[in-house]
From TrEMBL:
Statement: the UniProt record of this protein carries the keyword Ion transport: no
Pfam families, alphabetized: HTH_5 (PF01022)
Keyword DNA-binding appears in the UniProt entry: yes
Lineage: Bacteria, Bacillati, Actinomycetota, Actinomycetes, Micrococcales
SMART domains to which the protein is assigned, alphabetical: HTH_ARSR (SM00418)
Domain of life: Bacteria
NCBIfam families found in the cross-reference section: HTH_metalloreg
Protein name, as recorded: Metalloregulator ArsR/SmtB family transcription factor
């Protein structure tokens, strides 16, 4: 990344990745998987619900208007990417984001989209 006033500050690990992406294919692949997870409106709606805190499948269904089978399918996909975790209490399963960075990515993208429409 060229040094300029418009450059985004990055930490040392990201800087090393930027300088030599060929040696960091695993991190690049995982990042692409994150963007795939965010690429569908259904999963994005679900992740927004989880950005507010833990939620059951029923709560996610009610909040998003998605069907229960679709929510369950997407949760399985998101768990496989380690974006969502589950905690079981009795018969109830509570889902949550495993990493607040995911919520920040979504909120930054939404802010960018909303601000872009205001101009």
């Amino acid at each position: 990344m060229a040094d300029s006033q418009d450059s985004i500050p990055v930490n040392a690990a990201v800087d090393a990745l930027l300088r030599n992406p060929a040696d960091n294919l695993n991190a690049i692949t995982e990042t692409a998987d994150l963007f795939k997870a965010l690429a569908t409106p259904s999963r994005l709606k679900m992740l927004l619900v989880l950005a507010h805190g833990e939620a059951t499948v029923t709560h996610i269904v009610d909040s998003t208007g998605l069907s229960q089978p679709l929510v369950s399918q997407h949760l399985k996909f998101l768990r496989g990417l380690h974006l969502v975790g589950v905690k079981r209490l009795g018969r109830e399963a509570y889902y949550s984001l495993k990493d607040d960075h995911v919520a920040h990515i979504i909120l930054d993208a939404l802010a960018h989209t909303v601000e872009g429409h205001e101009h």
